[in-house]
Design goal:
- There is one protein chain.
- The protein has 3 helices and 8 strands; from the N terminus they run H-H-H-E-E-E-E-E-E-E-E.
- It is of the alpha+beta class and 168 residues long.
- The protein has a domain of 113 residues: minor pseudopilin epsh fold, CATH 3.55.40.
- The strands form 2 sheets. The chain has a 4-stranded antiparallel sheet with strand order 3-2-1-5, with helices on one face. A 4-stranded antiparallel sheet has the order 4-6-7-8, with helices on one face.
- The protein is elongated, with a radius of gyration of 28 Å.
- The termini are far apart.
């Protein structure tokens, strides 16, 4: 009987965690959350760049849809001096964040002093081109197919240090 009492007494001694063990576990959890937080914030890229890319791609798709529906030419005009764009006759100019650089690769006939435009025609085709948005090392490309007028949005991953994009 005394052996059972002794075993019961030993089991009672080791029922909880020590303060040192709890502090160690909390430290490991905080460290892990910090690493995950850094990975998430750097892995997703700047939210401003992604939002600008989605908005411009949406405006281009909207212009194409209006051209098809209304059976009339539509254009998205880019004002690079003001960092803005708009669909002609639809809504006032939308601004692009100043931290986002915009580059247009479009037909010569559609370039003017302040920027340029991408036109969509009633058959769904367009003048085509590429809008490149960049912020630091990150970039997004919006490609407009001249034949179909389809708009595609591509995220460019960050280049590794020492890697030159032009050598690809």
């Amino acid at each position: 009987m005394s052996t059972q009492t002794h075993k019961l007494h030993l089991a009672h001694q080791y029922r909880g965690f020590t303060l040192l063990e709890l502090i160690l576990v909390l430290f490991i959890m905080v460290l892990g959350m910090g690493v995950i937080g850094v990975k998430l914030s750097s892995g997703q890229g700047p939210a401003e760049l992604k939002a600008a890319g989605r908005e411009i791609a949406s405006a281009l798709r909207h212009a194409r849809g209006r051209a098809l529906t209304n059976r009339e030419n539509q254009a998205v005009i880019f004002d690079l001096a003001e960092n803005a764009y708009q669909i002609t006759g639809v809504y006032p100019p939308r601004t692009i964040p100043k931290s986002v650089d915009v580059t247009l690769d479009i037909a010569k006939a559609d370039i003017d002093q302040s920027g340029g435009r991408i036109r969509f025609f009633p058959d769904g085709s367009s003048t085509g081109g590429r809008v490149t948005l960049s912020q630091g090392q990150r970039e997004q490309r919006i490609d407009i197919n001249w034949l179909t007028g389809n708009v595609g949005l591509t995220d460019e991953p960050e280049s590794p240090p020492g890697h030159n994009k032009s050598s690809q």
